[in-house]
Amino acid sequence: MHDISDNVYLINRVNPLASYTLDRYLHNEIAIERAMTLNDVKLGVYNILLSHGFHLQLNGCEFLASLASRYIVKSDYNEQKAISDIAVSMGINDDFVIGCINGSIVRNKEFIPIASKTLGVAIDPGKTSITDVVTIVGAVFKVYFNYTVDTEHFEEDDRPAINFSRAILDHGKKR
Questions:
Q1: Class of residue 84 by CB neighbours under 10 A (exposed 0-12, middle 13-18, buried 19+)
Q2: Deepest in the core among 15, 75, 138, 144, taking most CB within 10 A?
Q3: Angle, vertex CA 86, rays to CA 81 and CA 90, nearest 5
Q4: For residues 128 and 87, what is the distance between their CA atoms, to the nearest angstrom?
Q5: Quick one: average pLDDT of 42-47?
């Protein structure tokens, strides 16, 4: 499990995790750590994206949810490797994954204002890169869901899809 306690958005919260009290526990202000499954983590990430203005029907939202789940779960998280793993599992190119994620971020004008209120942190409106958004979603997950999982293995990585762009459109030629 990735230790995201050094996440800049968690450190700068108005009510930091270190001030955890019985009152805060009873009023569900901070989620206690719970052992769950990888599917529960993904569902939590989708809930965060939906409640923060993302359009779930977009491919970029699906890719962003997978990337944020990997950020939360994988102890050896590397953004570029995670994007490549998502692309291989979907049978598409890395550039397509990046473009779709960027498109869903650009389309969502409400994300930064809502995330600022959710975390109790003033977030710079220019923080809209993929890395920034994934970090923000990870911080929201830690505060409101705080699930832990036993495994860091994503099953979709075992079933890579066929890249039809390479197989059909490029007539099988090497790029």
A1: middle
A2: 138
A3: 145
A4: 21
A5: 94
Among the residue ranges 11-15, 69-73, 85-89, 103-107, the one predicted with the least confidence is: 11-15
Query: Do residues 149 and 41 make contact, with C-beta atoms less than 8 angstroms apart?
Result: yes
Residues linked to residue 148 through DSSP beta bridges, in sequence order: 35
Identity of residue 4: I
Cβ–Cβ under 8 Å, residues 34 and 146: yes
Distance between start and end Cα atoms, the chain: 37
Long-range contacts of 157-162 (CB under 8 A, 24+ apart): 157/85, 157/88, 157/89, 159/89, 160/88, 160/89, 160/91, 161/88, 161/89, 161/90, 161/91, 161/92, 162/91
**CB 149 within 8 Å of CB 1:** yes
Give, in degrees to the nearest 5, the angle at Cα 154 between 95 and 28.
Answer: 105
Q: Report how far Cα 17 is from the mean position of its chain's Cα atoms.
A: 20
Averaged pLDDT for residues 75-99? 92
pTM over 0.90: no
Question: Among 30, 8, 28, which Cα is nearest to 19's?
Answer: 30
CA dist 67 and 167 (Å) reads 26
Distance, C-alpha 19 to centroid of its chain: 26
